[in-house]
Write a structure and sequence with these properties.
Length: about 250
């Protein structure tokens, strides 16, 4: 892994415009379970039932009880880990422009990244199904489910359920960034949910170097990514930063 980490540091040092695509795996070390693989949420909750907007509209109380309540509590208690902090350090060094995240936990912003495209929205906010009012989680009382807005409307996470469209501006900007970058770091995603999983393909088709950071291979590996650094995001990002800092210091002499 060390050679790959050194190679990634050299590639990042030489890149002109770096974008990251992140998935649930980067937040695993913050205590937030992934959706698939070991400890995956979808192993115990059927995504096409409880993750779908039709079910929420039909029985919001059940979806709040089975899926949202516990996930919201875990997210509220979560802190950024070395994976998030490593990407924030890359931005601070001028080596990362934008993060396209599939995650709804807000941990990239909490770590300090300033340009984060929330491809699937965010669970740190709840939105009223009637008046559209958005409330921070801290202002939402979940002693009774589903929680309601002052107007009486049902509150829902400000995320994208299955069966809903990706926010237009997020989709447009992500496609533009993927086409513009000359490097994409793909961190902690199984790369199977579209259209997010298409972003590394757009990057590759536009000549970018695509680097995956993941303990496992994905459908991108060996086809669209140039190489996979097999490991957990925190340790790999720590290694990349340790190799990159002296390279950047040399360049600035
Ligand atoms: N560091 C890096 N990667 C990790 C780690 C870790 N510590 N732990 C697990 N992974 C990897 C897994 O190997 C897997 O490839 O993270 C990935 C997690 O995959 P998913 O759970 O499918 O998460 P994600 O790719 O973000 O899912 C995409 O699916 O259900 C929808 O809306 C949901 O945004 C989500 C989307």
């Amino acid at each position: 892994m060390t050679d790959m980490i050194r190679r990634a540091a050299e590639d990042i040092a030489a890149a002109e415009y770096v974008v990251a695509l992140t998935g649930a795996g980067i937040s695993v070390e913050s205590g937030i379970p992934p959706f698939r693989g070991k400890g995956g949420i979808w192993d115990r909750v059927d995504p096409m039932t409880f993750g779908h907007i039709d079910t929420f509209e039909e029985s919001p109380e059940k979806v709040w009880r089975v899926l949202i309540r516990d996930l919201k509590t875990i997210i509220e208690q979560a802190e950024p880990n070395d994976g998030h902090r490593g990407l924030a350090r890359l931005e601070a060094m001028g080596r990362l422009s934008t993060i396209i995240t599939q995650n709804v936990d807000g941990l990239h912003q909490a770590a300090g990244n300033t340009d984060v495209i929330e491809f699937h929205g965010n669970c740190a906010r709840q939105r009223c199904m009637d008046c559209g009012n958005r409330l921070a989680n801290s202002a939402v009382d979940i002693s009774a489910l589903p929680p309601r807005c002052g107007c009486g409307g049902v509150l829902r996470p400000d995320w994208v359920f299955f069966g809903e469209a990706i926010p237009e501006d997020a989709l447009r900007r992500s496609g533009q960034m993927a086409a513009r970058c000359d490097m994409m770091l793909v961190v902690g995603t199984s790369a199977i949910v579209q259209p997010a999983a298409h972003m590394p393909i757009i990057a590759k088709e536009n000549g970018a170097t695509v680097i995956e950071i993941n303990p496992e291979r994905t459908p991108l590996t060996g086809h669209f990514s140039d190489y996979l650094i097999r490991g957990r995001a925190g340790a790999v990002m720590n290694g990349i930063l340790a190799a990159l800092e002296p390279l950047m210091a040399e360049r600035s002499r």
